[in-house]
Amino acid sequence: MARLPFSLLLFLFIFPLLLDVGVSKTLKRDVKALNEIKASLGWRVLYTWVGDDPCGDGDLPPWSGVTCSAQGDYRVVTELEVYAVSIVGPFPVAVTNLLDLTRLDLHNNKLTGPIPSQIGRLKRLSILNLRWNKLQDVIPPEIGELKSLTHLYLSFNNFKGEIPKELANLPELRYLYLQENRFSGRIPAELGNLKSLRHMDLGNNHLVGTIRELIRIEGCFPALRNLYLNNNYLTGGIPSQLANLANLEILYLSQNKMSGVVPPTLAHIPRLTYLYLDHNQFSGGIADAFYEHPFLKEMYIERNSFRPGVKPIGIHKVLEVSDTEFLV
């Protein structure tokens, strides 16, 4: 019997493997979860989610907003982005069964109700974007179990209660956006232990307490660049220790009930670029070092109790940056 050529034998060996890769299926757990989500979201996404397999099947493409990746012999859902389509209803709990998610973006919809406690199951999640919805209730402490989280966007909702100290358990967190909610109580000083945190926006809430309480941990906020605490009910003065935040570029304290003098040490923050102190109860004067700062572009000091003759900087050129969010 004639022997088959080696090249043909090699092809007969490899072809089934290639065929097997070509027909790899999506993990049943993810298929079930996405179809449950599809049923709960309603008609607004149904027309783009065709077929039974969210990762695509045969000639059918993956569902819009769904990103899948190969994991062994299966495909798993790693990203879910369904935003600005006016989804109405409660947060789809089935999302928490997508255990390989790294990005969840449901922003600019009309989701209501609380974030389910099961959110803590998404251990691989790095970006959670739920801003611009109508979510409410308290943030579940289980959100502190998302150890891979780098970006947390919960702004422009109706969350209430205290900011959970469990957020300090997120070692990779870089961006924390909680502005425009109804949070109350004191800001957890434990947040100062977040070594990677660059931007924290807690503006437009009902927070109380003092900045001294926030920075009482030695070496706190080592990477923080932007700190927004505007439009709350903070009291007390600006502690000189705030100057220890050497990377700070934006400090936004407008519209609070703070008082006392502005410590000259703030002018020693090397990268300070924007300083907002307006609409408080500060008194005294402004050190010349602020006017001589090489990077300070604008400082707002109006509506305080500074002594006559203090020159405001930038009073006629208001810079709107409080709603800026850096999503990557």
TrEMBL record:
Entry's localization field: Cell membrane
Keywords: Cell membrane, Glycoprotein, Kinase, Leucine-rich repeat, Membrane, Receptor, Repeat, Signal, Transferase, Transmembrane, Transmembrane helix
Pfam families according to UniProt: LRR_14 (PF23598), LRR_8 (PF13855), LRRNT_2 (PF08263)
GO terms, molecular function: kinase activity
GO CC terms, sorted: plasma membrane
Major localization listed first in the record, in broad terms: membrane
Residues annotated as signal peptide: 1-24
Nuclease keyword on record: no
Keyword Transit peptide appears in the UniProt entry: no
Record-annotated Leucine-rich repeat-containing N-terminal plant-type domain positions: 28-69
Disease resistance R13L4/SHOC-2-like LRR domain span: 95-202
Annotated family: Belongs to the polygalacturonase-inhibiting protein family.
This protein's name: Leucine-rich repeat receptor-like protein kinase
